[in-house]
Fold each of these.
Amino acid sequence: MKPPLTRRRVLGKLGAALAGLMTLPVARTVKAAVQKLRVAPGAAKGYDPTQHRWVMAIDVNRCIGCGLCAEACKKENRVPEGPNYFRTWIERYIITQPKPGSAVARGEVLVDSPNGGMNGFPEPPVKRESIQHSFFVPKLCNLCAHSPCAQVCPVGATFDAPDGAVLVDPKYCIGCGFCIQACPYGCRFFNPYTRTADKCSLCYHRITRGLRPACVEVCPTEARLFGDLKNPVADEALQKFYAENRVQALKPHLGTEPRVVYAGLDKEVS
């Protein structure tokens, strides 16, 4: 069994990475120049990231919590099995009725996500008559325009692609875990097989070939929508989504400006 990712191991790895501190400014300059020219591993040959601006939209009112998206993501991206490894997952929110005589409008908020929602959800942990409202919220990398994960990466392995994707280059990643700790959305994990940080990549190997992300492809209710803001298509579902809904993002107060947006998001969702 490989040792868990601890603060001691993180600091040890960072110390090793900083051993070449004297050459780091030059290395960063070269890396920055390379990143502007290259496309992440897995992208289609000839794909130009400057000609696209990808966005993911999620209609909470349509999600039924079937878990097909999380299952498809694991298979498509070879995500390790187990409850701690997900590029996308579903959370169930249960808002109970307020206690009799209480002055509040709603009761306790319960949140669960058994196995990322892959196998659906069990019966609610409270009696049905005590439930005021319940709903499902798919989650994934929020594709931040101002990514905390990219800001803390000491070697530039995590970077913002020109097309809006936030990607991890496994060739550069040293597995220090700083990005995992910095992500305010809990969207990253340490891959025990690659020994690198892992997260949703929007199925970059698919979208650069004109395909949709696996999670979008399998959603039976079209709760997930995906599109290109630089190349809008008339009458497509994404344009209709923006026109008909009050679009929101998770934790807007953080100023990360996510490019994953929601409709029907309850104030209790974080």
Amino acid sequence: MSAHTAQTELKLIGKLILEGELHCETGLHVGAGKGSLEIGGSDNPVVKDSSGRPYVPGSSLRGRIRSLLEQATGMAVPSELVYLSKRKGQEVRIHQSDRPDDDICILFGRSPGRMERVSGEPIEGNNASPARLSVFDAPLDPESITQQMRENLDDELTEVKSENAIDRITSQANPRTIERVPAGARFQVRLVMDVLCEEDAPLLSLLIQGLRLLEDDTLGGGGSRGSGRVRFGNLKLTWRGKDYYSTGAAQKELVPAGDLAALQAQTQEIGTSFLSQ
């Protein structure tokens, strides 16, 4: 748990900006929902922007990082989970507590009010916490889809993967198709972490832990069937103190470029020194 208390005063000190690339090691399927089905299209299309290009929604990336951190820190247990939705077959359970030193809730934010726990008495939340982390939609780098790749794709930018669900009694096949962004595609990612007090600085290490967990897990749908393996590259970490916004002071490049392992090592060396820059 962090050093935050109920008396911790929040005031913008600066922002940590992490930019880089998300590389698809296998095909990636972030679904668009059933409302986007087209005649003759795949059963499960990927989400696309107004130009018809696939992208990774910031909400999908942020939610996956959060869920992995909740599991890694032991917060994905009934006594720590609350219901966002209790609709049968569409239950949504996430971690939330009213503890002022709860790192997950500090990084991702929380709202006050009554929430029903999965197990135990409901939470009467009084400690509202502004989200420190913002994750933006990640657009596709069109140049990452090479001409050679395009010649083997089902669409200009995507492939269609065919799958079969087999009935265990009759052996009848139930075919389905899933649209995916192909392996080799790259997306441009941008994450911004607000530092509202000195106690926020260690949250950067928590974020990097979540990104590293994601590299050995999956993003999007079909992960247990081969889709969604990703890695991060060309990561750059920049510090913009409050003077950057008020007087136009220069930003500070903390880590120029590298993968997550290099970023994590250099961040540990930097520590909290950026707070005084």
